[in-house]
From TrEMBL:
GO CC, one annotated term: MHC class I protein complex
Phylogenetic lineage: Eukaryota, Metazoa, Chordata, Craniata, Vertebrata
Record protein name field: Beta-2-microglobulin
UniProt record similarity statement: Belongs to the beta-2-microglobulin family.
Keyword line: Immunity, Immunoglobulin domain, MHC I, Secreted, Signal
Signal sequence, renumbered to the chain: 1-20
Pfam families linked to this entry: C1-set
Cellular localization per UniProt: Secreted
Gene Ontology BP, a term: antigen processing and presentation of peptide antigen via MHC class I
Organism this protein belongs to: Amphiprion percula
Main location: secreted
Domain of life: Eukaryota
Ranges where the Ig-like domain occurs: 25-117
Length: 117
């Protein structure tokens, strides 16, 4: 009986794995609280729905990588697609541009933060 139970579990796990196909990331760039010029905030780049799990996320200020950013652990949802978040403490000022550079399956794309300042 125990072997049968194991076989059933593995059937489910293989079915789940075979469902996962290459999928491009969905990206959202936003701030933790409403942004105001000169006020400290957190810039967040949320990336989800992608597969395979290898991905590079960079937060950029005026095109330059923000080195003090932190990344959450990779997590996956019920459809076996992965999601994670990169965030950084920042203080937006007039004339500055912020963006998230996401590289997946060899393709890089920039996602601009459209700060409502
Ligand atoms: C985005 O990231 C990729 C991979 O790290 C890098 O090759 C590319 O130059 C970056 N693009 C920009 C505009 O920084």
């Amino acid at each position: 009986m125990r072997a049968l139970g194991l076989a059933v579990v593995c059937l489910i796990c293989f079915t789940g794995l075979s469902v996962a196909k290459d999928a491009p990331p969905e990206v959202q760039v936003y701030t933790r609280t409403r942004s105001e010029v000169g006020k400290e905030n957190t810039l967040i780049c949320h990336v989800k729905g992608f597969h395979p799990p290898e991905i590079t996320i960079d937060l950029l200020k005026n095109g330059v990588s923000m080195t003090n950013s932190k990344q959450t652990d990779l997590a996956f949802d019920e459809t076996w697609n992965y999601h994670l978040t990169k965030h950084v403490r920042f203080t937006p000022n007039k004339g500055e541009r912020f963006a998230c550079n996401v590289t997946h399956l060899g393709k890089s794309r920039m996602y601009d933060w459209d700060g409502d300042m």
